[in-house]
């Protein structure tokens, strides 16, 4: 494939995968009151893209996905009564950083299935850490527990642990399919 066709192919595939991830993010298994939800594998397309096209393309698509997530949730976020500094922190930690790290999913793709599994788990843990830190420094104002650390761990773990398990299992199963292997070999 010549250079410009290859670029257009990657750009088109990225747009399709970001759109798919965005649509899947709207299918919520359950949603928590202050953000966070278990979705129908909404992060899998971004992880797949990073594995298929590399971390550079994965990070670019993940950043666009983070902006889409922010746009979808901004109305809710603005009703939480956050200070301007807390609002900026929420936008950065809970959206821009938390969703952009998904683009690192292909970091270990050359290691095969093990690398895909490690990459999937890594990005989910990184996303969890973004939300965890946000819970400690921004959402501590709503914490009624003795420990804001434990509260943030439990709150964010309640949706990130199921997301981690579902996304990792789906990624490992998907990349075993012959059709996906064929696409991977064409890259």
Question: Can you summarize this structure?
Answer:
The chain contains seven helices and two strands; from the N terminus they run H-E-E-H-H-H-H-H-H.
What does this structure look like?
This protein has 187 residues and is mainly alpha-helical. The protein is built from seven helices and two strands; from the N terminus they run αββαααααα. Strands 1-2 form a two-stranded antiparallel ribbon. Strand 1 (28-31) and strand 2 form a beta hairpin. Helix 1 (3-25) runs antiparallel to helix 2, helix 2 runs antiparallel to helix 3 (55-78) and helix 3 (55-78) runs antiparallel to helix 4. The longest helix is centred in the last third of the chain and has 27 residues, at 148-174.
Q: What is the number of helical segments per DSSP (H or I, 4+ residues)?
A: 7
Low-confidence stretches: none
Side by side, the strands of the main sheet go 1-2
* Gross morphology: globular
Q: State which percent range the strand residues make up.
A: under 5%
What class, by secondary structure content?
A: mainly alpha
Mean pLDDT: 92
Give the end-to-end Cα distance, rounded to a whole number of Å.
10 Å
Order of helices and strands: HEEHHHHHH
**Main pleated sheet:** 2 strands, antiparallel
């Amino acid at each position: 494939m010549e250079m410009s066709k290859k670029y257009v192919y990657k750009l088109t595939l990225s747009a399709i995968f970001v759109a798919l991830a965005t649509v899947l993010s709207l299918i919520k298994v359950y949603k928590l009151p202050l953000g966070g939800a278990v979705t129908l594998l909404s992060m899998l397309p971004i992880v797949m893209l990073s594995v298929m096209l590399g971390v550079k393309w994965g990070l670019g698509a993940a950043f666009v996905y983070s902006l889409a997530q922010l746009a979808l949730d901004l109305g809710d976020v603005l009703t939480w009564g956050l200070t301007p500094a807390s609002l900026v922190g929420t936008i950065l930690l809970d959206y821009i950083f938390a969703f952009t790290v998904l683009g690192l999913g292909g970091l270990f793709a050359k290691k095969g299935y093990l690398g895909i599994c490690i990459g999937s788990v890594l990005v989910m843990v990184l996303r969890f850490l973004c939300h965890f830190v946000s819970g400690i420094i921004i959402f501590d104002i709503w914490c009624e527990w003795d420990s804001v650390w434990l509260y943030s761990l439990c709150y964010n773990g309640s949706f990130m642990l199921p997301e981690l398990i579902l996304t990792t299992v789906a990624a490992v199963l998907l990349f075993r399919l012959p059709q996906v292997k064929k696409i991977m070999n064409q890259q």
